[in-house]
Write a structure and sequence with these properties.
heterodimer, A: Rossmann fold, Rossmann fold, five-stranded mixed beta sheet, B: alpha/beta, six-stranded parallel beta sheet, two-stranded antiparallel sheet, globular
Amino acid sequence: MSAMTMTRQQPTTDAAQSPAATERLTLARAINRGLRAAMEADPSVMLMGEDIGALGGVFRVTDGLLDDFGDSRVVDTPLAESGIVGTAIGLALRGYRPVCEIQFDGFVFPAFDQITTQLAKMHYRSRGRLTLPVVIRIPYGGGIGAVEHHSESPEVLFAHTAGLRVVTPATAADAFTMIQEAIASPDPVIFFEPKGRYWDKGDVPVGRPYGSTAGGLDTAQVVRAGTDLTLVAYGPTVATALKAAETAAAEGTSIEVVDLRAISPLDTATVAESVRRTGRCVVVHEAPVLYGAGAEVAARITEACFYHLSAPVLRVGGFHTPYPVARVEHDYLPSVDRVLDAVDRAIAF
Amino acid sequence: MNEPDLVQLLTPDGERVDHPDYSPRVQHLDAAALRGLYRDMLLMRRFDTEATALQRQGELGLFAPALGQEAAQVGSARALAPQDFVFPAYREHGVVQVRGVDMVDVLRLFRGVDHGGWDPTEHNVHSYTLVIGSQTLHATGYAMGVQRDGLVGTGDPDRDTAVVTYFGDGATSQGDTNEALVFAAVNNAPLVLFCQNNQWAISEPTSRQTAVPIADRGKGFGVPGVRVDGNDVLACYAVTAEALERARSGGGPTLIEAYTYRMGAHTTSDDPSRYRTSAEEEHWRRRDPIDRLRAYLEARGELSEEYVAELAREADALGVRLRDAVHAMDAPASSSMFDDVYATPHGVVADERAWFTEYEASLTAPVAGRGHGETR
């Protein structure tokens, strides 16, 4: 314990700002600010992960937090993902709210057992007597020219496991509010961060107090209104979908874009409400199409809106291959052109 | 290979032997306390016998007997303080019993009416963990929480807190157990890693799990290791007491290897005759942990006929209570499968529960219920 410091310095941000205050921040910085807000508001919140202390994380998401909160709350862990999640479970049982960082998507698998057999099921196993407020942050997705295991999208592997909430922000504003909502949630949350969008900037409601309800962790949002087709996306592909909608608009096609925000639970109602108006639906994600989130959306939309559909629900996503080498990843990822190709096919059906 | 010293205070014949480091740890145990350990072990064995019989009668789906491991479990658990926290594997019936859990609750899991069975916060003992070794990391994290709560090294014996995790020889091969040793060591966590080496991981002997004595493996992690005679309740008490004191005072984790024997099958589904000899079983039967304490107490005239008779009545009463309670354990309502999946509402679970409820009702309703989905 002697090596631990329980430093509680004043925040470096202006805490007196009005609740309506916004700042223009990158998505990565917005998560940093969200983590800081949660740690300031709740002393049981702590961060665990590899290189998250002095280095501030390989993406600098935890930059500066070690200095301000000390090494008992910002813990550089041994290099062992199962150990990170397993000890986080124990800390949660003792009353802490650990936020674990998995360095890259492809490195989560050593922790897959602890996440799916223990973290996801302990509330159920205990008949609700125990709660596991653990957040697991995973930078995911491609487009950054990385080596193997650094560009994957394993979100449905977790969404398939009951007991976990699986969410992913697409914007800096959502990143700021959703990370705080994830930390405040009594349920374990797998928080997928679109690493290819880490440096995208947006207006962030930094004045919103921790604990206030924002968009929630279980609702999709219509982020662009349209009448001819519904594009469903999440995380890194929301920006792609919006660009596609912009291009289509110039050609006279009106596209509505829905940001799912949550993969589990899946907000079918918001998507179905949109599709009942547009009659067409295309789902876009980086993960492989086979058994992907798009398959689930397609099945549920078919069940919910069968008589409103003018075309089958189409999917645009990764192929049934391992994530390819960086020099060809642009052809693996769902590009604006591939999204528009699917839009054209749906409209021509 | 050089076998490590086996800490022993009571020989298989029930003779008390001295150990320079550990004898002082049991000096305060008077005859009544020793009879208490005897009672704990006897009741644990009765629980084992009753549960095995209930499985054979079809009342339990499965049972994992702990026959032969009474000293390791009772001795270690009796060294704990109320504020300490235990993370067991799934064969720690004696530990759970000593902690005060109603033994009826232990059978809910094996009856198939509950995945857990008791409130872990009530007696500071976590529910059984079936994935081998997983609980060692939970215990380590819990111990890291105890550190953050400032409950290590305060000098107040009623506040200083340790965490104990139980696991078997098979679990020492798991990554999680090794990661627990790493995390506990670098964090100097107040943790006792109590390995019951019962010689068999289902059909695989310990030689398939480790090339060196398990106790010796602590050294590589910077964790002191000790091998104790796991069929000697006094020695198990003593080494655990020492390890707990080290943990509570800020001295960090300890790895204990309790060298014992699983006298029964792995579970009621197992057939040990396929992989081990009756000669081996007989060898260990002569080292029965209950026999040796009985011999010791009898030789000292500390086991009166009245006490033995009273204990027999208590064991019989436990048997009756277990049988009656298990017979009365009805299956929960099927719809309860949707309870407590999440702590806060989850749309998919809510929809599926609603559908299932409607479907169930349709099976008994006079007019068949409407299917779900979009209607024209």
